[in-house]
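Exercise 7.
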Amino acid sequence: MKKILVPLADGFEEIETMAIIDVLRRAGLEVTVAGVKAGELVGSHRIRVVPDTVLEKVMSEEFDLVVLPGGQPGVDNLRKDARVLDILKKMDEKKKMIGAICAAPLVLRDAGLIEGRTLTSYPGIESELKNACYLETRVVVDGNLITSRGPGSAIEFSLKLVEMLLGREKAGEISKALLAVT
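Solution. The predicted structure, written as tokens, is:
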């Protein structure tokens, strides 16, 4: 079974986070939500979530995909966490999949992963992603890097992650069950 890591910090974007976790779990993937700190985390719109575990407990595990939700100050909290940056660097070195939505490509930038890559993000932060080829497309795939715009594209983004991990047929099956427009 494919294993997915969703690192989470206070200030996460709730729609993006829940869509990612829900869609990937519906596809039968093993999703671990790991808080950068122990206990309950509070989203950018004050929704509270208790992660499955804490990041330090999964640092040595192998994952097929790491997905970063957006939201502020969640993205800034992920950017400040050296463990998150280390995981991303190791995933990229192994050419394993990395997903980032909304402002989370800033975490990829801080990990040194965007130079010469094609990506997208939430509108308004593209000026901070100068070393990348920036598109205003809802979901962008560049090799092992998958990025998306924001809450409104979260289902589409999550379905693309399913497609890349399990194939177009499985993504279509989940999309149909969700009544998603694709």
